[in-house]
């Protein structure tokens, strides 16, 4: 067991980003507002103070979004496209600075943070391209002299809530979709890891987005979401986060008949068949599992391995997990950083308690590392019953349960048995097995023998309790547009 995570010197680092609200085109510092301490999860040190929006700030943000929407909705798609392209360019130029602060407040290794910024510049570009293709259609009339048109219009002011695991990624997708569609937005970012969202507000501001089209607020999540969703100004709610919170917000939005997009949690099954390249699957899955310390909604989280190759898979997977270097994300040799906050460390400990009680074999890890910061060991638990908490609740951390299966029908039934339906992974060298299983899995995204399911040009979203709507792909504007039918003689 590792007892001390690798720490790195923080001397000589540039100061952490100044945190602010962003309302009506103005960055607003705390002044006499309440603040929230932002911690470095690698050390628990206080990095900065995040201003909490007052009720007056929220109303100011709503009013400026409402005003800005009236002109932004009429803007040319070419102008929207140009702003989104500038955002992508600026994101690339500033990627290193944004990534450094993202690592400091969220914990992920610097290389992962940098890749998050660079990959997400593509989201802005994708929306810049697609927003020029928001087409309507003409429907042939039943009699001459009538013209029937379908037009797609921006839904209006959107309230968006984004989480702390991919602070830049989750926010830029929602902002780019709203901006490209001609909507305005009030966004509450993650209080645990806010720097990347403040950086994003600067990117859009500097790219020339008119004041009020984007507003960023911070504070107590339930207070802010209740205020924004109840406001008649808001016409759409977009949330990325946990299933229980998503259901609450969707129910609230339903009370006011507002549209929703929900990107919620998952518990992604991985099915490894006996004809797969077992060593390669085990190695790549272990590395993929530990990306962002497992705090990824599409992380592989339930490993079903064919009985014939189970022992080999567990041994190789454990060896790879054990080789991963855990430490401060700013250290270039770090491969897995701390968890983003203390709540996840407690959650991991609870999962492990339950697993041990049920006779799971912890083949590696299982413990918190040190007491500075929020580190937890890469952990493998073999041989749990399907009823164990780890097998039915999203772990959202660096813990991987592995169980056996014998028959394809049985493993499909087990994979589909949970209310989640986000991502699923299959490893097989049989085309027939790949097709059968991909068709049968109840998931919004299925990856076979690889992991490429979060690209700007591909739709990202879940089914069942994992949410509704897609971000990215050709579907990306669907949630931000309403359909109007015009018939004319
Ligand atoms: P949580 O459910 O309290 O919060 C999850 C996110 O929702 C946070 O960003 C939080 O600020 C926000 N939130 C919470 N209550 C809210 C409300 N009433 N209104 C608006 N926003 C609200 O849990 P947590 O401890 O922060 O995270 C743990 C769980 O969250 C994980 O188990 C995972 O399921 C889920 N999660 C999912 C994603 C994702 O990408 N789907 C991202 C982060 C967290």
Automatic annotation (TrEMBL):
InterPro entries (alphabetical): Ald_DH/histidinol_DH, Ald_DH_C, Ald_DH_CS_CYS, Ald_DH_N, Aldehyde_DH_dom, Aldehyde_DH_Superfamily
Domain called Aldehyde dehydrogenase: residue spans: 28-486
Keyword set, alphabetical order: Oxidoreductase
Keyword flag Oxidoreductase: yes
Lineage: superkingdom: Bacteria
Keyword set includes Oxidoreductase: yes
One Pfam match: Aldedh
GO MF annotation list: oxidoreductase activity, acting on the aldehyde or oxo group of donors, NAD or NADP as acceptor
CDD domains for the chain: ALDH_F5_SSADH_GabD
Protein family membership: Belongs to the aldehyde dehydrogenase family.
PANTHER family, A to Z: SUCCINATE-SEMIALDEHYDE DEHYDROGENASE, MITOCHONDRIAL
This protein's name: NAD-dependent succinate-semialdehyde dehydrogenase
Annotated source species: Cupriavidus campinensis
